[in-house]
Amino acid sequence: xxxxxxxxxxxxxxxxxxxxxxxxxxxxxxxxxxxxxxxxxxxxxxxxxxxxxxxxxxxxxxxxxxxxxxxxxxxxxxxxxxxxxxxxxxxxxxxxxxxxxxxxxxxxxxxxxxxxxxxxxxxxxxxxxxxxxxxxxxxxxxxxxxxxxxxxxxxxxxxxxxxxxxxxxxxxxxxxxxxxxxxxxxxxxxxxxxxxxxxxxxxxxxxxxxxxxxxxxxxxxxxxxxxxxxxxxxxxxxxxxxxxxxxxxxxxxxxxxxxxxxxxxxxxxxxxxxxxxxx
Length: 279
What we know:
Layout: H1 2-14, H2 16-35, E1 40-42, E2 45-47, H3 59-70, H4 73-88, H5 91-97, H6 102-135, H7 141-144, H8 150-172, H9 175-199, H10 205-211, H11 215-220, H12 231-239, H13 253-276
Antiparallel strand pairs: 1-2
Helix pairs in contact: 1-6, 2-4, 2-6, 3-6, 3-8, 4-6, 4-8, 6-8, 6-13, 8-9, 8-13, 9-10
């Protein structure tokens, strides 16, 4: 594993675009800490994010893992490029000639994706602790680590998404087309969701339960948008007479298993493609 990882990391670091995208991703996450000290002025009202409870434990685990997950597209581009460059520069064929098996080739990409996901998880963990311990109104250990399982959901989400990107890179061989396919599949899932609601017009739960088995939606369902959990939003909704929000935002471990299953499926399909394809 160490040898395969070393090969891939050298390729990424020597590629200027991949190097810039990787650094940008981690810099943007780090900037979350800097933004906390900024003064915002909206319609004459001045406030800081740190002063309105955004970084309070345990809410911060949900808020920051969701925000960081949005930035995953930066690393997705790097991962898709890892595959497309192998085809473009002919290094895949050369690696196979030099004795690397197709299984080792795929594992080298998977290990790199796993490393990105792990480092991202550790990095966001550090950022959350720094911000939370600096600005949270609560510092009891039982509250500080109450929702820390969002880190697990974050790691699993990244692993599944990167595995999907690997599969798309192998499927279409070109990074632009792979990212385009990713965008198109997102639209496909959206219309499938509408179709499920049409098939079950008298049920609100059945269409949603089916919808959450789709690849991208299952990943999104791991960490739901936390906006309506935020106390400021709750207060505004209450003042406007909105309905009480009954959504369960906790990490659903059945959903974790679904996403892990998709990760395995993507890697198996990638390996099957590599085995069948004449390189």
